[in-house]
Structures are given as C-alpha cells and as structure tokens.
Amino acid sequence: MIRRSLPLARSVSFDVTDGHGVIEVTGGESGSLLLLAGDPEFLEASDGCGSMGRLAARAGTGGPGLCDVKYLVEWLGAPGLVPDPRTGLAEPPDPQSLRPLLSLLSPGRYVMTAALAPHHLRVVHPRALQVRSWYADEELALVTTDAWPPRDHRTVRRYRDRIRAGGDLPALVALFPTAQSRVGYLLDGHHKLAAYDQAEVRPLVIRLVPQVPRPLRPDDLDRARAAFSDGPSRHQDDTLGRVLSSLREEPA
User: CA-CA distances (angstroms) from residue 8 to 5, 99, 134?
Assistant: First the structure.
C-alpha cells in the first residue's frame, strides 16, 4: 500500500507500507549499493583519488538482473508531466500511478520529484565484474541497470520520434540514495533515455529518494566484495577493494 502525505513544493512524500523489498538502495553521497532481491548488484562510490573521481561496478552474471524483477510501467511512456519552461521542474505524479514499480521497493517513506535533467547528463554502464571510472564534473549521472545501449532499436526510434514531435514527454525513473546525491540508478527508461540522446533533448527524470537515508550495512559490504570480484584471489589494494574498505570505515 502506498500512502501519500501532504506534498512539499515540487515534491511529494509517500509511504510504501507493503513493499516487497526487491529493490533497495543504501549509502550516501560517498558511496551506495543497489540491492536486488537482497543481494548487492550495483555499487557506486568515490574512488578516493580526489577531483570528484567516481566508480561504478556490477556484480557477476549469476546475480539477479533488474530486468528480471521489475515491472514495466506503460504509463511512463506518456505521464502527462509538464516541466516549467524556466526551471525545468514538473509537478511529481501521484505515487499510485507508479504503484507496480514502487511496490518492489523496501518499505519506508520516500520523496519523489520530477524535472528535466541538467544539460550535462552522464550515462554510466558498468559491465559484470568490471569497474567503470569517471570524473563527476556533471550535475547528474545515471547508472544503467539493464542492457545499454538498448537492443530494441524500433522502440527507441518510436520514442525518439515522439520526443522530436513535442507534446507529452516520456519519463525515466531513477533511485538515489540521498536527496543530495548526484548519481542515481536508472530503474526504468533505458529505451527512453537512448531516444532522448538521439533527439538531443534533456530527459524528464522522476527521482525517488528514501526520506531517511539507509546506511551501508557491514554484512552487505562483505557480500559485495565477493559479488563484485572474480574470485577470492583479488588483491585488497586494487581500486575496488580500496573503495569497499573505505566505505566500511565510514561512521554509520
């Protein structure tokens, strides 16, 4: 059940009271984990090298894929959200419109906003058991959780043509660990994002954030070390091992 509370300006808070816990995000601006069915599947964190260096990693192919546990929400293809031409902000939708997806989240209170992405949007696609590094000099970065670029070119072209024609913009849904985080996990909208890129138009992003950030749990970090590594022989002084160790040392 999703219970909506009184909205703030350009945001809405809601409770997921019976979420299945299939999708959960923990951590904060320095690093976060996306857990699927309780297992660490994606990691995003500071690489500890300064200059806003970031990295993203994906667990091995044996883990659950987001495409296997999420529901596609057709409503997102034309949600009727109208961004303000000056600010890019849009009134967030009624959470009930996203119930098929929101019911997969861990129970708790979330805040939802909707806005056009900043001009500089980075798309980060970590492959299984590989580390992707970049410098976060953009206002927003999205970590893909499905095939990238999408394989269904026909769907991408259909969205691209609609975007170019104007009118009702399709929406992406991304989950962020905190309201201040500049990196989020793209839960739904990979075809739409590719279409926006081809149309050279800023995408409309619905942001979901736990109202109270959930700290990284030591047990999850232990399992993440195995999930993101190719075996127990991986050296502890490599980038990924250093980042996981740093996250463990952070105060809860």
Answer: 9, 20, 34
